[in-house]
Amino acid sequence: MNSAISTTRRPRSTPAVPASPFPYHPGSLLSILDLSVEDVGRLLIRATELESEDAIVRDRILAKRRIALLFYESSTRTRTSFELACKALGADTTLVSNLSSSIEKGESLKDTGLTLRALGAEAIILRHNSSGAAWLLEESTRLPVINAGDGMHEHPTQALLDLRTILAHLRPGVAGVAPDTLAGVTVMITGDILHSRVARSNMLLLPRAGARVLLCGPKELLPEQAARPGTGIEIERDFDAALKQSEVVMMLRIQAERLAGLQLDLDEYKANYQLTGQRLAAHAPKAIVLHPGPIIRGLEITAGVADGAQSAILEQVTNGLAIRMAVMERALTTDRGDRA
Amino acid sequence: MTALAICGGRLVDPAAGIDAAKDLLLKDGRVAEVAGPGKLKGKNGVEVLNATGLVVTPGLIDIHVHLREPGQGYKETIATGTAAAAAGGFTGVAAMPNTTPVNDSPEITRWMQAGERGAAVRVFPIAAATRGSKGDTLSDYAALKAAGAVAVSDDGRPILKDGVMRESLAAAARVGLTVIQHAEDTRMTQGASMNLGPMSFKLGLRGMAAESESAIVERDIRLVAELRDSHPHLHVAHTSTAAAVAAVRQARRNGLRVTCEVAPHHFLLTDEHVGFYNTHAKMCPPLRSTADRDAMIEGILDGVVDAIATDHAPHAMHEKEVEFELAPNGITGLETSLGLSLRWLHSEWKIPLGRVLSLMSAQPAALLGLKGRGTLTAGSYADVLVFDPTAEWTYRATESKSKAKNTPFDGWPMQGKVRWTVSEGRVAYAGG
């Protein structure tokens, strides 16, 4: 390689990098970065309030408001909990999925969004296989858009429900969230980080609440640049060494549908990164175990650990319902106006 | 018969070594006379363009554009694309062959240059290097050259097979054509939609490694070296990575005929400009890292870059208003190239005006062997750009002469306003 590689010989003014290109709806939740730490705290408090609210009172909060669930990917947890959350607040929901709609005939995301808006949808919850799709939908419809997972990019409500689960175990009784709430806590995320929107959203949220995030996995699934998005994020490739340091152990599924030709030796993967009861007992006997689901028993996690005493996997699912109630209330009760 | 005088301006003709007050007389599509101010002999009764306070320079030449005809007239036509070219100060554009059908034949090559296309400025077809740009069988270079092709390329569908690329370089050398390679090892870039790096990780998009470009550039240079006795000319299109520029620099030191171009977006923008999935910042090669972008500037400063070329790639709005991964590659560039180059290369980074203009006219003309272009000495083609070098203005995509509006430079400040573009003696564009 010759000299051209290191060319920053002298500082030079260059065009500025663009900020957010358009002020989007203040009720939208496209990225977890749309929420300040205070916003997150308010949502978590509201989630708790809504959860314990009288069902009749709760039913009036979004009575007869129309919410569309637009799903380009299959989903169990996210779809059902969003739908139940909307219904718990009294809203009418409709589900449009790519396999049973005009999307199959080639209708674009923009046109699908405009159609839903013309039918009276006041907010759209979008799950899409393409990163960034939520931005396109928001720009096209100018409705509150809730990102329920976009490709390999983000899944902000998952990060919120993960935070709620972590707080319930490690900071019981703490209501709001501050930059030091999780000071001294290490959360390890193990597995297919490269393809994981859950990992990305958690990496953008947990350090802001004071946690240290430790990423763990083989190079193919965890590139070096993953640690660069922010401070408080580190890479530890040795699974056992990472376990020893962690209060929270988050496991991720290998996303076979997104591997795109990547060859992975699953036996080797299991040997190095499978969370077994033995490993957990040896290195992190007090840690809580999280998994965004779907879990593949016997691959990234053993059945014993998934069903074991340290597992908070089903609590995560339950927390999803409360969080999504708060997020949908925010979506439809925040007035339009440029975000501060 | 038709004559036009351009008087009172500052003539900047780098190829002729002129930067001085001169008047020009254009007659029958050629430069008839270059004289000191007020000294033109044959200008009686001739229409005069008053260039006082303006720069008069050879018309710009863009050796990398997509005019979309035949076959994709909904994106752009030869008429609209060349109207945009004229508005941007260009008097000649070299059109890539990825049309429908692919321009791999003398018939299409001639069709593109026919008067019925309504071109505002000269179109120089670049023909497909292989039949159908499929990368298997060479097209007929001699016949294509006779029909007016100025180079061969499978732009967008790089020639991956070593044997075919070697044959192409050898065959092109025999007839005196340049082989232009879009350097991308597409086996490494499947499913990728931006540069590979921290930004692609952050956005959750699959990335193209810089090596996918440099690997092909290095392979091609090896082939040129093996064939050096037959003097092939390899031109690397839209260079975007530090490693590719370094490879070209080394090849030149080794005495090989290897040239390269850089697009304004690659010397100005980085992958951070993808921002929030802006499909107007999606092109191939993609916007790269800051180090790569800086290497483009260095390459321009130290002379390894031979030409500024826009890779003008118009698309219909509905094609770009889709998910980032699904959007087609490419941005328009003809109307913003001069304004950005003057604003940044000249004013900001202090490259002399003559050198910037040379990168946009004399050098690209020489690179493709366009005789009588890129200079305004007597007898040359009367391809002239007259512009106000200090005027600052804002580019508005909605006012574009192109059919397409897919540009990341909408609303950007520009420097240097085109007053007249004269193509072979005829005013092709008159600006305010």
| Count of DSSP strands of chain B | 18
Uncertain spans of chain A, ≥5 residues at pLDDT below 50?
1-8
CATH class of the largest domain in chain A: Alpha Beta
Question: What is the structural class of chain A?
Answer: alpha/beta
Number of domains of chain B: 2
CATH topological fold name of the largest domain in chain A: Rossmann fold
* Average pLDDT taken over every residue of chain B: 97
The spatial strand order of the largest sheet of chain A comes to 7-6-5-8-9
- CATH architectural category of the largest domain in chain B: Alpha-Beta Barrel
Report the CATH C-level class of the largest domain in chain B.
Alpha Beta
Biggest interface and residues each: A-B, 43 and 44 residues
How many domains, in number, for the residues of chain A? 2
CATH superfamily of the largest domain in chain A: Aspartate/ornithine carbamoyltransferase
- Write down how many β-strands of chain A occur, each being a DSSP E stretch of 2 or more residues: 9
- The helix content of chain A is 25-40%
Amount of helix of chain B: 25-40%
Helix/strand order of chain A, N-terminal first: HHEHEHEHEHEHEEHEHHEHH
The name of the CATH architecture of the largest domain in chain A is 3-Layer(aba) Sandwich
